[in-house]
């Protein structure tokens, strides 16, 4: 995406911003940020919020990436079902500056309510709304990564909605810039709300997942219940000594007594303590687990894995450089199997010997597709080549899809068999695993094979693929 000569823009009441669809009349400014401002505007169907980027503040090279991210923000939010997400309705460019038109939430943000006393029903309503928003995001392979009171807004009927997807990305996304030492230069997070792994600069580009948002949810609820306190110390403490602050997170040294004294119900001590666990695997893995503790109705936004929707499996790009692209696995396998298929007997024997599965493989019931980075110089190196223009976290030979023709079931494994030369596998068979891992529903595959189900989310680098029928 190319952004050409954006003009410095100052909107005031009665300014008119025009999209391809309609005109919007500015009523007032309702928010400011380093990269954009938000305005209350009036359109054909009522009041909306309009977020306008300050593209003129970026260098020409930065404009390309930021414009792409901003467009992704619009695309992300369109994908997410449910009433607890700020919905986008329009996208266009004003004097070289992209803008998004979205829900207007007249009752402000949670930040303005920190310090108030929350009774048990009101607190449960707030938490349930946040969790349903997170649940529906995660089911589409998207994490927020910047959950904080400023990004929880209230609509006209006090329904909480999650906002600001400008730094949201797919599960385990690495929208980071790395310096010449290989360290993360840019980590999108607010430290007092961030999971410890988000600020581990050596690993930050590898560890984005559902549990990052679960941790932030715990920190937000702690602040809400304690009327403005943070579990591990103030923001000033964090700024003064990040290393010491993060050490408290590692050791679990947070003020449990203050939470106990202010909690309207004991369940909050249980919930927040588990949310704030240092190790991601020790936290709640899904928002549904907390909703169950709160006994929240699992509304129509619920989506479950379903078998048998179709005999055809399709991978839809949910995040990455080609959002919306479809890969029909059953069609691809007819024409795009790797050139080492003459040695499928070798691969079948390896599958039977090393990977646990309830099926038996042989060369006549095995079909294979390979996934990896799309190399323009070798466009047919993989059956499915994933384009990455702004990052390089997908390995050249990243993952393998295998189809069992007798049972019509698809499986996925990390890495690919090593070839001596094109078409000839190295013997004894070896698997070259990906550098950054392959994840299904945020869980790493490691040395295993997993059967794919409809609605599964596959993550390769900064790209997420959803299994659809």
Relevant terms:
469 residues; alpha+beta; Phosphorylase Kinase, domain 1; Transferase(Phosphotransferase), domain 1; Tumour Suppressor Smad4; 3 domains; globular; protein kinase activity; ATP binding
Reconstruct the topology from this structure.
Blueprint lengths: L15 E3 L4 E10 L3 E8 L2 E8 L6 H20 L8 E7 L2 E6 L17 H20 L2 E2 L8 E3 L5 E3 L6 E2 L39 H16 L9 H6 L1 H10 L4 H7 L4 H9 L11 H7 L20 E6 L6 E3 H7 L8 H11 L11 E8 L10 E3 L12 E6 L4 E6 L1 E2 L1 E3 L2 E2 L5 E2 L5 E3 L2 E2 L4 E3 L5 E4 L2 E6 L1
Parallel strand pairs: 13-14
Antiparallel strand pairs: 1-2, 2-3, 3-4, 4-6, 5-6, 7-10, 8-9, 11-12, 11-25, 13-15, 15-16, 16-23, 17-20, 18-19, 21-22, 21-24, 24-25
Helix pairs in contact: 2-3, 2-8, 3-7
